[in-house]
Structure formats: C-alpha cells, structure tokens
Amino acid sequence: MKLEKSxxxxxxxxxxxGIAEFFxxxxxxxxxxxxxxxxxxxxxxxxxxxxxxxxxxxxxxx
Length: 62
Hints:
This protein is mostly helical. The protein has helices spanning 15-23, 27-36, 41-50. The longest helix has 10 residues, at 27-36. It has three helices and no strands. The protein has one domain. The radius of gyration is 12 Å and the shape is elongated.
C-alpha cells in the first residue's frame, strides 16, 4: 500500500482521506490535526500537488 490521495474520501484534494486510508484511521481525525496544528497548511498544499491520485473505481453498469 502506498500513500495516495483518496478518490472517495475527499473534501478538497483527498490528502487527508489518503493519509487516513494509509494509516487505517479516521479521516476526521486527520482533518482535525491539519486544522488545529499551526503551520500545517503549507505541507498540506505541498502534499496536494505532489501525491498521486488513487484511480477511481469503475462504475457498475447495473
């Protein structure tokens, strides 16, 4: 498993959802850490621009 932006659990870019999926924790807790810790907005935007996007699952025809 590698660190990727989430395709399904995303609010802005999917960074927090991808980190939560990678570590197996709640995405809400990751979002709260990014919101409540001063200075993490810069690493967030760096991760948003450098992390690869997880491929979206194909939609079923049925």
